[in-house]
From TrEMBL:
The lineage of its organism: Bacteria, Bacillati, Bacillota, Bacilli, Bacillales. InterPro entries: Cro/C1-type_HTH, Lambda_DNA-bd_dom_sf. Keywords: DNA-binding. GO terms for molecular function: DNA binding. It holds the Pfam family HTH_3. It comes from Ornithinibacillus sp. 4-3. The keyword DNA-binding applies. This is Helix-turn-helix transcriptional regulator. Gene3D superfamilies: lambda repressor-like DNA-binding domains. Residues 10-64 form the HTH cro/C1-type domain. It comes from the Bacteria.
Amino acid sequence: MKKITLSRNLSFLRKENNYSQEDLAEKIGVTRQSIAKWESGESLPDIVNCDALATLFDVSLDNLIHYDQKDNGFPIPPKGKHMFNTVPLEKDGYVKLPEDAVNLVMMQEGDTFLVLGDENPKSIGIALVPLEFFTTMTQGILNHTKDSKK
């Protein structure tokens, strides 16, 4: 199963980045035949090459090896980005966040968040930012501005 997941991810990422097998081979210092064998599942890259591929494509090593796009319904995410699942918008605008998302950012009942929105068609979306983080960041900017005026 791991061979299939890795080979699918590798093939997807190579095509998504508009690399030929030869281009990719050159970038990480292997032969085109090696890339072809990895993508077909005939063989697996060693850990050094897996790390080079993950770095090149800006994905986590864990996701490169284990992320199953077919099961998740989403393409492999960039490093540090997560796609948890789809959730419905409920009555009065409520959205129940997936447990994995809540656990990842250590949200707790009673925490306060700033809701940010982006209406740009290329990046439309909503983000939740912990109020403490936003307040600390804003205070740092204000302090930096004060210091630079002296």
